[in-house]
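so the lab meeting is tmrw and i was supposed to have these ready like two days ago... anyway. pasting both below. for each one the top line is the aa sequence and the line under it is the structure tokens. i havent really looked at them closely yet so no promises
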Amino acid sequence: MADADDVRRLALALPHVVEIDSEGFDFRVADKGFVWSYPERAPGRPRVIRTDIAVLYVGDEAEKQALLLGEPELFFTTPAYDGAPLVMLRLERVDVDRLTELVTDAWRMRAPDSLVGDLDPDEDSAEPSAIA
């Protein structure tokens, strides 16, 4: 239900976000990535950038496991991400409201405290407004 264009629109509407030039999408706040296209790697084959799958920063292992176990139809991981606070999200299986929540939460966890105050409090429940 969601796609790469939704990720781009939501991420760029958050304060102080920069999009890094890439084959897919790659968004940062204060030089820290919070959502990007999944770089799928298969043995013996070149890396493929998957814009139908978003990699999201989730903060810690407990949150990662909660998402993976609670919503396996949406989230997955690979051995390459073992020990990293990251999950992969199947965009075609998530609605835009949930994507908004996930992207905003990832931004909030990566943004320095000095920038978090720039996030409109209403953005937790609605699509972010354009703030740059």
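ok protien two:
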Amino acid sequence: MRRTVAASGLDVAAQEELDYLRWLPSPREWWRLAYNPAGELVGLSVPARNYGDPLIGYIGVVPEHRGHGYAYDLLVEATQMLADEGVDRIVAGTDQTNVPMAAHLAKVGYPVAQERVDPI
């Protein structure tokens, strides 16, 4: 996504991400906007299914609300939502450079099954 932002701009990158999420066959009703107690939008979580696995499709926190633990909360909620659907495993991933999200995945208990290095 960062490469797309650099090459084509934020709007193109956001559209690519949204196109991917819309491609997923899971219900849109699973998508969740998150708000803080003051009513401000803080993020989005998309527990999902692709054509093979249940997965964490997206966790995002708006920049001005990062650093308050919202990504962890969103990840826990998305994981619980999928567990409530009766899945027996969930896949999730993040970039190696996204150290905070990698830490949240580890804290929740997601194993590192593979790593990919995408050279710029």
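from a quick look at the 2nd one: The CA atoms of residues 2 and 8 lie 10 Å apart. DSSP finds four helices and three strands in the chain. will dig more after coffe
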